[in-house]
Amino acid sequence: MRFARGLRSAVAVLILAAALGAGPAFAQSPQKTLRFIPQADLRVLDPIWTTAYVTRNFGYMVYDTLFALDKDFKPQPQMVD
Prior knowledge:
By secondary structure, this protein is mostly helical. It has helices at 2-21, 53-62, and strands at 67-69, 75-77. The radius of gyration is 23 Å and the shape is elongated.
């Protein structure tokens, strides 16, 4: 009986902590600059020549894609009219 009550209390504390931690961060100011560190140096810019993820990621950041997948994973026009 004491174990069940203690377990319920622990679960309630965890749920409360998760609910309080899921809120927005009010202390942060909105910024427009995205900074990241790639996992490797960018050596080749041509995604046809290499299959390195850093080249693919660079291509996605610089060039927008013509099509994108929607929530049902069906291709939808993104830049194509």
